[in-house]
Amino acid sequence: MQDIEVIAPNLKHSLSGVTTTVIRLLPIQKKMIGIVATGPGLPDDLPHIRLIKVPFLSNRTRRVWHARRNTEMLMGLFLRKVLRRNLKLLFTSAAQRDHSGFTKKLIAQMDALIATTPQAASFLQHPSTVIMHGVNTELFHPAEDKQALRNKLGLPGGTLIGCFGRIRPQKGVDLLVNATLSVLPKHPDAHIVFTGRATSEFEAFQAEQEAKLQAAGLGDRVHFLGERPWEEIVETYRALDLFVAPARHEGFGLTPLEAMASGVPAIACHGVGAFSAQIKDGETGRLVEKDNAPALAEALDQMLSDPAQLAAAGQAARAHVERNFRIEGEAEAIVEVYRSLLDTE
What we know:
CATH topology of the largest domain: Rossmann fold
Strand content: 15-25%
Distance between the termini: 26 Å
Order of helices and strands: EHEEHEHEHEHEHEHEHEHEHEHHH
Number of helices: 13
């Protein structure tokens, strides 16, 4: 193993956007710099060090601690200030809103900051480097045989629409369900799959959505699959014909890029996360007004009504990601920040 120069903590058990970011970047960054992850919920093949071992690493070597959550900033500060570890602290922010007073205090103690969008940078109140997310176009790619893949995954045939992420109002799950009520009866071969977990706080919310679908006679065409293994999520993207990201709020929002890299056009909302920068409206998918179920229904109906346009948009989406959102560019830009910190006294 290379000398450890960077530690990327993931201090959360459940799959989240931050966890996904760590999983995406490290296999590429490990070819550029000595980087390991620490924390639970990560694949076994990812370069990893147990958190309990971090305080015992040699203090003669300076390292970067790359936090992406408040808990990880706190842990980095504890390691440096209390345990006197030789660490430079880096924080990446995707939040497009004013931070809490507590978060601002943590941010002020970081040595460097990365923002995933210019909007996120505007809320940091400190200098930052804007590095937009990219996707691994080797991992995310179109399916060779979509029907065989659906059979393997136990997914329905026909036209398949996907929506991935936590089941909660923030993600706009209810907006897609409400749009579905008017759209699916017009397209009898279409199905929707939701992947993602509803925490106890939002179990009633999911039950409410399922009840609406059952009452409309659509319960057998909209499938809540729950939290799925990462490898299965990657394959499920390839099995789709259309992806929808109806979120009301999002930090960056990577799922449309992952779908488009898989040859699947995407519908998302103007002014949410980085969706407006990701999707070329009318070419690689559609951008609609946020928090507007009728507008979402109109876009869904339009795309489902023209299978040739849907297929062409999928091809255009893949090409768009390959030109503009390859993960190698993101990984290289972040490693440049690592090296600047390691070279700074």
